[in-house]
Amino acid sequence: GQQVMQIPQYQHVQEGEDFTTYCNSSTTLSNIQWYKQRPGGHPVFLIQLVKSGEVKKQKRLTFQFGEAKKNSSLHITATQTTDVGTYFCAGTRGTSYGKLTFGQGTILTVHP
Amino acid sequence: EPEVTQTPSHQVTQMGQEVILRCVPISNHLYFYWYRQILGQKVEFLVSFYNNEISEKSEIFDDQFSVERPDGSNFTLKIRSTKLEDSAMYFCASSDLLGSNEKLFFGSGTQLSVL
Q1: Which residues of A touch B58 (CB under 8 A)?
Q2: What is the mean pLDDT of residues B37-44?
Q3: CA within 20 to 30 Å of B30's CA: A18, A58, A112, B92, which one?
Q4: In 3-state terms, what secondary structure has residue A87?
Q5: Which residue of A lies nearest to B96 if distances are taken between CA atoms?
Q6: How far is B99 from chain A (nearest CA, A)?
Q7: SS3 assignment, position B99
Q8: Secondary structure of residue B85 in the 3-state scheme
Q9: Quick check: B73 pLDDT over 90?
């Protein structure tokens, strides 16, 4: 079946440092979504990428979708303590919209 | 912002018992989902539901699981005879679109503990 791998599993940074998490799929994706889950919380939608090579920005967050539509990254510039949480990528394949295959997530801790 | 609501927030049950997890999706949404997350692990797709029938289901969603939309607002997940390994956080989600504009809204989850 489809596998979505995400690295690193954990990332500890000092406030102000940058952070990147990488997502890799074993198969070509129709689209990829990113979610943030605060400790004890539920996944909250951040963004969806659909096109090959697409780059989207949300303030300090930059999302990329690879040319082959098999990998993606999330980069946070100048982390803040409010960025703490687990960041998940989740892909869909074919027309199975809504059937998201999640990566394992990257747990980000930010030290003030 | 509109929310998906789930009840109860915690459910403790004995192995072999039936449980029903309840969800109220966002009112104008048409697509409904159940996902689960075992402690410390990734979120896993269980089932999608549209137009009063299951659209897709995963290998996890075996004969012990069923979903229902009994009225215009509720969406339920029933586990007929719970097993220890069913212990997890169960998230309901809904969306109003599919495809390139899809965005899933997740509820706060029901933590199911099977003893």
Answers
A1: 99
A2: 91
A3: A58
A4: strand
A5: A98
A6: 6
A7: helix
A8: helix
A9: no
